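Appendix B. Extra example for self-study. Work through it before the problem class; the solution is given directly after the inputs so you can check yourself.
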Amino acid sequence: MTHPQPLPAAAAATPPSETQTVLLAQRGEETALDDLARSCRQQAYIFALQLTGHPDDALDVAQDAMLRFFRSLGRFDPKRPVRPWLLHIVRNLVRDRARRRRVRRTESLEPAADALRLEPSDPGPDPEALATRRQLQALAWRCLQELPPDHREVLVLRDYQGLAYAEIAAALEIPRGTVMSRLHRARRRLQELVRQRQRRTGEV
Amino acid sequence: MSASCPRAFDEAQLSGYLDGELTQAAEQKVRIHVEDCAHCRALLAELRTMREATMSTEFVAPDDRQWDERPRSGLSLLSRGAGWTLGLVWVAAVAVYGLWQLWSSAAGLVAKVLAFGGLSALALLLISVALDRLAAARTDPYREVQK
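Solution. C-alpha cells for the complete assembly:
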C-alpha cells in the first residue's frame, strides 16, 4: 500500500483487538471465547437491567442473550462492532418477554432500588451537589420504567449506554431524525414523571 | 416546564444540541434562539441536569459466579452428545437383557409381571419427558436470532 491511510473516526471504528478476538472465537479458540463471554455478559446484563428494571429478569435475559450470541457467532461479520449487535439481541429478548407475559405498563412493578451503585466512588469537592445528583439518579431510575417501551429504549441507549444517534438508529431500525425527536419526547416525559414524584413525596 | 416553546422552535433540537449531534449551522441556531427565549433556556438547563444524572448512573453487576457456563465449542458439544447417546444405548441394552433373563428364568408369573410393570412405567415416563424436551427445543422462537 503506497498511500497513507487516513485514521478512521474513533466512534465508527471497531477496535482491532475486538475484531481479532471475534475471529479467534469463530475459529473455536477457547481463550478468545472466554474473553468474549466475560466482556459481553456484563454489558448484556446491564442493558437488560436498564430495560426491565429487575435484576432477576435481567440475569435471565442476559443468559439467554449470551446463548443466542454464541449460536449466531459463526455468521457475524468480525469487522462490525460487537456491542450494537449484542444490544440488538438483548432488546429483542426483552420485547419478546414483555409480549409473552403481556405485561402492561400500568401493571409494572417498582424497579429494584438496589440495582444502582449509589455510594460515591469519589465524593469530590461538593458533597451536597453529589447527594442531590444521587437523589435525582434514583428518582430517574424509578420513573424510567413508567415510560412506554419505545421511549425507554431510546433513552437508555443514549443516556445510560452512551450510543451515538447513528448507532441507536441502526440498533432500533429507525431513521436518525426519529431518534432525536423520540429521545426528546422521552426526556420530557421522564422529567415530567420525576417532577410529579417529587411533588408527591417531597423529595428534592 | 410542560408547555412548548412560545416561538414554535423545534425543541428536539435542544436534545440534539446537548448530545453534540447537530451540524454547526443548526448548533448556532440553537445558541441564538436560547439566548432570546427564556422558555427554551430553562428547558435546556433542566435537560442538562437530568442528562448528567442519568449518564453518570452506575449499576450493580452480578459477580462471575452467577453466570451459566458459556456454551462449549463444537468438539466438546459433539463428545458430550456422543457420551449421552452411548450411555442411553447401554442402559437400554442392560434393561432388555435383564428383562429377557428374568422372563426366561424360573421366577413365578407374579414376580415377572411386577418387574415388567414397574420398568415399563419408568420407561414411559422417561420417553414422555424426552418428547417434551424435544418439542420445547423445536418451538423455541429464538433458536436463531435475527440478523
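Self-check: Chain A has eight helices and no strands. If your reasoning did not lead you there, revisit section 3.
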